[in-house]
Design goal:
The chain is mainly β. Strands 1-4-3 form a 3-stranded antiparallel sheet, with no helix packed on it.
Amino acid sequence: MRPGTVVSLILRPRTDDKRWTGVLSSAPVFVLVSGWKVAADGTARASVRCAGTRGGTADVTVSAKAPDVAGAARVAFTLRVRVVPYTTQG
């Protein structure tokens, strides 16, 4: 992806008893995540934006867990994003 590109990430409701709980970027300097929202039907949405002018990679991870089970949520989805900077002349 190029810097400044915005992608909408839409995750359908899970078929097991787990629910989407949160989203994180491994490298916010390259990829920013905003607008996280889980609808009443279980569909999760987030906006993923490539930031900066340098190239690099980042993993966007989404976690899920069962609402009635204690413990931390686990990563259930990973999107690997590669940012390719625009070429410069000269």
